Amino acid sequence: MKILMAVLAAGFVWAVGCSDALARKAVTPEVVLATLEKAGIPIGDKEVYTAETDVNKLLGRPGQYVAKANWADSRLRQPADDMAGGSVEIFRNERDLKARKTYVENIGRAMPSMAQYQYQKGLVLIRLDKALTPEQAAEYEKAIKAL
């Protein structure tokens, strides 16, 4: 009986450890971009930011995203000094993600010219240029479900 209990306990510890490792699987901007490309979304230029290169100076700051990338969607006309397409922001916790998402939504409500599509999967927030059609934005929504 003791041997059976020991085997069951060891199996439980192994299962919990494996599921914990899977839950901690790191989702990075590079993983998100690869997922979008694999889904057939036409990603052009892309830039993964660091705390030093983030134009918003929010990356890694208290209550903000901990990873970020922007990309160009090749279906959109690209401005000379920016990328029209999307942004991925990854957060440390749900509270910080919700605060950022609400902040961006409020800007779009106050200034419709700044409105964006936003999709969330776990601690990943995808923000898309409003120049995309609803059908094109839906392709992103479907693709991030694979994360």
> What would the principal axes of the Cα set say about the shape?
globular
Measure the end-to-end span: 42 Å
> Percent range for helical residues?
40-55%
Beta-strand proportion = 15-25%
Number of strands: 5
Task: Characterize the biggest β-sheet.
Answer: 5 strands, antiparallel
Radius of gyration, taken over Cα atoms and rounded to an integer in Å: 19 Å
Order of helices and strands: HHEEEHEEH
Domain count: 1
Low-confidence stretches: 1-24
Helix count equals 4
In short:
The protein has 147 residues and is an alpha+beta fold. The protein has helices spanning 2-23, 29-38, 94-110, 134-144; strands spanning 43-48, 67-73, 85-90, 116-121, 124-129. Strand 4 (116-121) and strand 5 (124-129) form a beta hairpin.
Description:
The protein has one domain. It is of the alpha+beta class. A hairpin with a 2-residue loop joins strand 4 and strand 5 (124-129). 41% of the residues lie in helices and 21% in strands. The longest helix has 22 residues, at 2-23. The chain is built from four helices and five strands. A five-stranded antiparallel β-sheet has the order 1-2-3-5-4, sandwiched between helices.
List the helices and strands and how they pair.
Elements: H1 2-23, H2 29-38, E1 43-48, E2 67-73, E3 85-90, H3 94-110, E4 116-121, E5 124-129, H4 134-144
Antiparallel strand pairs: 1-2, 2-3, 3-5, 4-5
Key phrases:
single chain; 147 residues; alpha+beta; 5-stranded antiparallel beta sheet; 4 helices; 41% helix; 21% strand; globular; disordered N terminus
